[in-house]
Design brief:
This protein is mostly helical. Helix content is 41%, strand content 7%. It contains 5 helices and 2 strands. The longest helix has 14 residues. It is elongated.
Amino acid sequence: MQLATAGWRAVAELPWIAAPARSHVSRLLRLLFAQQGVLPNQVVECDQLPSMLDLVRSGLGMGLVREDLARSAAERNEIAIWPHGRIESSLSFVFKAVVEHDPAIVGLLSVLREHWQIHGHGG
């Protein structure tokens, strides 16, 4: 099978490395396939996202991986990216409200604002 031209059903039937059911990655994977009316063939569960890419590199199965990590690995010819499946996600940095003025939190929020390109208190 040529992965680049494979359809959703064919890709869903391939072995998939799944994240734990309650994780955001698992929810995104289920949503991505559910939108196409199929479910991925989950053969193994991996609870460490960096390890998921290692398992994909080893040939164990397909995985849903952050785009920047996937592109970097693809540029090194370690993996191939299926061009038909992509899903957007939003993440939030959360912390206990009473430590908002702690110098470490203030510094971290400053870095996050710069790198996540957000303004103001919450973004």
